[in-house]
Amino acid sequence: MAKAIREAYGEALVKYGRGNPDVVVLDADVSGSTRSALFQAACPERFFNVGVAEANMAAMGAGFASVGKIPFINTFAAFIVTLGLLPARIFGSYSNLNVKFMGAYGGLSDAYDGPSHHSIEDVAIMRALPNFRVYTASDATLTDWLVRHAIESKGPMYVRLSRDVFPSVYGPGTVFEDGKGKVLREGKDAAIVACGVMVGLALDAAKELAAEGIEAAVIDMFTIKPLDAELLLEFARSAGAIVTAEEHSVIGGLGGAVAEALVAEQACVPVGFVGLADCHTECGSYAELLKKYQLDAPAIAAKVRETVAKKRSAL
Predict the structure, then answer these.
(1) pTM higher than the cut 0.85
(2) Does residue 173 fall inside a structural domain?
(3) Is the pLDDT of residue 166 over 90?
(4) Chain centroid to CA 186
């Protein structure tokens, strides 16, 4: 049965952090939402609720990292990359300290709290910081691996998490590799490069397209920085068309990273972008918001049709 990403995250903190005395967890008074409260219950002596003081929390995390601890700092993504940005830049990026920035309720998943709580620019901000690695969790299995990877690897990291339950993409025991995207479906006509909860929607779109005779590959590019440019080039050559799908602004996120990588290698193929069209969002149910802002499976399928048509017209 599928599990909410935030729930999987809290469980993974306990699973991998309970037996590691270097792991400390900080939260900005939203531990019930981020589910870091599970670690608080298991390891209260290594949990710190700093209150609504996100910048202080990030700076405290840097202090812990400077003496060899592995701090996970937690709040909503919209706040961790804004109120926490200066310490992220100075202590995480410039000082290259081992702080793990965990952005809960990524994208539009904090649906009814509206634009002040929606996170539509976090990937763009964090991937611009030198030394930071940036990842987006697409399901519970990947979330579990990302927590373990964060503990095992050195350096600052930003992980975008989501709130809701979405269908599982991976089975237990799936092997992931840093800097390597996962091919979930092969296809010769186009490749959908997605991240986060958009991965499952991309698989739904690919099934819809297959019924029309369009075979679209689906790639989970959960590792946005470092980006798997080699895999992108492989599918640019074999499929001849790329569509990116992200729950983020079309400016500076996964789509921007993919376009940069393709241009750097002079891979001149049609590229379509599914994402927020340089706008702020509004309140509503999560499903309604995804539909309104064209972030659902039909929107992905439509963009693939449009991009494949451009490829074929150029032949």
Answers:
(1) yes
(2) no
(3) no
(4) 22
Kindly state whether residues 150 and 201 are assigned to the same domain. no
Name the DSSP letter for residue 128.
T
> Which residues partner with 23 through β-bridges?
70
d(CA 48, CA 28): 9
Same domain, 265 and 149: no
Q: Judge if 194 and 109 occupy the same domain.
A: no
H helical segments located in the chain:
5-17, 31-34, 37-42, 54-66, 77-80, 85-87, 122-127, 140-152, 198-210, 229-239, 254-264, 286-292, 297-313
Q: Which is catalytic among the residues 54, 121, 246, 247? A: 54
Q: What is the CATH number of the domain that holds 299?
A: 3.40.50.920
Catalytic residue check, 54:
yes
CATH number at residue 64: 3.40.50.970
pLDDT in tens, 114-164: 999 999 999 999 999 999 999 999 999 999 999 999 999 999 999 999 998
The strands making up 47-49's β-sheet, listed across from edge to edge, are 47-49, 23-27, 70-76, 100-104, 157-160, 133-136, 223-225
Are the CB atoms for 165 and 2 separated by under 8 Å?
A: yes
Strand order through the sheet with 216-220: 182-185, 216-220, 190-194, 242-249, 271-276
Residue 274 one-letter amino acid: V
